[in-house]
């Protein structure tokens, strides 16, 4: 009976999409949940002179996942801002964006659009420095999550154009607004929270690097508690999205199952009516053997051979036999052409 299951193409697409999205969101949630669990289990180590002794006493001189906080200090010459005199940092990001208005033919309005024309990210080696001038070298800082830089320069260059440019803009459907020039830096002296794998190198240099087991690597100006709460919030959002998509898929299945059950109910009712009409036909045939042939005026208007044994509702016409009613191409009354809502047996005393 599964080939008769009344599920439509749109419902199949919706069901497949909901299941795929639910699986994807649940996978992301599990990764976020794992990150939260690792953050909850990670020890928070003070950045002082005792950290080297701790690593020396650790097998392999490696702690797989720890939390440390310290101030940024460059190893060698820092990066200097191109726009702000005296501003130095260890990570620098220069971005040039083009802003313009694009005509949306569907909404019949102009919408904002932006495009990156140029982007350059530079960094120099740096340490996180704590008490007693103890330091930890940060490796691969650009691979870390949460590394937000401070905007030290932002300037918008307004576009200028003449009359011919305006005509060309309306013909092309694009109006340049201008270019936004920004510079972001992780400044020297800024406090960062690092979460990752801590090792003691052969030259007794402490280094923080991305974990070898693939766990999340963090380098953020937020403190540990704020980072943990942010990750918990993201995990809750992905779990909610996964549950919503799963419920949407279940709703599609229940809707199709409800329609299938209604179809079965209609089939069961039709089978019951068929059995009832067969019983009436058998009783009518027995009556004809006793009383003679059925009068022609009571014959079915379609086959002209079987007696009229059903009432078509809602019009109420008694004009055909049940066999001819089942054979109708459309559920409409042969007499008045009104839709047939249901049919009931005709009982004759």
TrEMBL record:
GO molecular function annotations of the record: ubiquitin protein ligase activity; zinc ion binding
Main location: mitochondrion
Transmembrane segments: 12-29, 236-257
Record-level GO cellular component terms: mitochondrial outer membrane
Signal sequence range: none
GO biological process terms, semicolon-separated: protein ubiquitination
Subcellular location per the Swiss-Prot or TrEMBL entry: Mitochondrion outer membrane
Xref: InterPro entries: MDM2_MDM4_MUL1 (IPR051652), MUL1-like (IPR022170), Znf_RING (IPR001841), Znf_RING/FYVE/PHD (IPR013083)
E.C. number: 2.3.2.27
Organism superkingdom: Eukaryota
Catalyses which reaction(s): S-ubiquitinyl-[E2 ubiquitin-conjugating enzyme]-L-cysteine + [acceptor protein]-L-lysine = [E2 ubiquitin-conjugating enzyme]-L-cysteine + N(6)-ubiquitinyl-[acceptor protein]-L-lysine
Membrane topology qualifier: Multi-pass membrane protein
Domain RING-type: 300-337
Keywords per UniProt: Membrane, Metal-binding, Mitochondrion, Mitochondrion outer membrane, Transferase, Transmembrane, Transmembrane helix, Ubl conjugation pathway, Zinc, Zinc-finger
Protein name as annotated: RING-type E3 ubiquitin transferase
Phylogenetic lineage: Eukaryota, Metazoa, Chordata, Craniata, Vertebrata
């Amino acid at each position: 009976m599964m080939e008769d299951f009344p599920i439509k193409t749109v419902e199949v697409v919706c069901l497949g999409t909901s299941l795929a999205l639910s699986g994807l969101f649940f996978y992301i949630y599990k990764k976020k949940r794992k990150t939260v669990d690792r953050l909850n289990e990670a020890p928070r180590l003070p950045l002082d002179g005792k950290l080297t002794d701790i690593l020396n006493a650790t097998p392999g001189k490696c702690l797989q996942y720890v939390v440390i906080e310290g101030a940024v200090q460059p190893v060698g010459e820092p990066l200097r801002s191109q726009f702000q005199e005296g501003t130095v940092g260890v990570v620098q990001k220069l971005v040039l964006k083009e802003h313009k208005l694009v005509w949306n033919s569907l909404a019949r309005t102009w919408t904002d659009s932006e495009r990156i024309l140029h982007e350059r990210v530079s960094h120099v080696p740096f340490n996180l420095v704590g008490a007693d001038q103890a330091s930890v070298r940060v490796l691969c800082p650009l691979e870390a999550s949460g590394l937000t830089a401070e905007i030290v320069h932002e300037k918008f260059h307004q576009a200028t154009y003449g009359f011919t440019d305006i005509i060309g803009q309306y013909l092309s459907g694009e109006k340049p607004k201008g270019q936004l020039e920004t510079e972001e830096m992780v400044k020297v002296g800024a406090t960062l929270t690092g979460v990752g794998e801590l090792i003691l190198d052969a030259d007794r240099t402490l280094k923080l690097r991305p974990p070898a087991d693939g766990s999340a690597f963090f380098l953020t100006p937020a403190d540990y508690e704020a980072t943990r709460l942010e990750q918990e919030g993201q995990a809750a959002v992905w779990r909610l999205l996964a549950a919503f998509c799963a419920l949407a898929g279940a709703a599609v299945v229940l809707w199709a199952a409800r329609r299938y059950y209604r179809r079965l109910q209609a089939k069961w009712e039709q089978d019951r009516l068929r059995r009832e009409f067969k019983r009436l036909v058998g009783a009518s045939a027995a009556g004809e053997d006793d009383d003679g042939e059925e009068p022609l005026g009571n014959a079915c208007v379609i086959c002209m051979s079987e007696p009229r044994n059903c009432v078509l509702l809602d019009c109420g016409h008694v004009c055909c036999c049940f066999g001819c009613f089942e054979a109708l191409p459309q559920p409409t009354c042969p007499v008045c052409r009104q839709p047939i809502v249901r049919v009931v047996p005709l009982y004759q005393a």
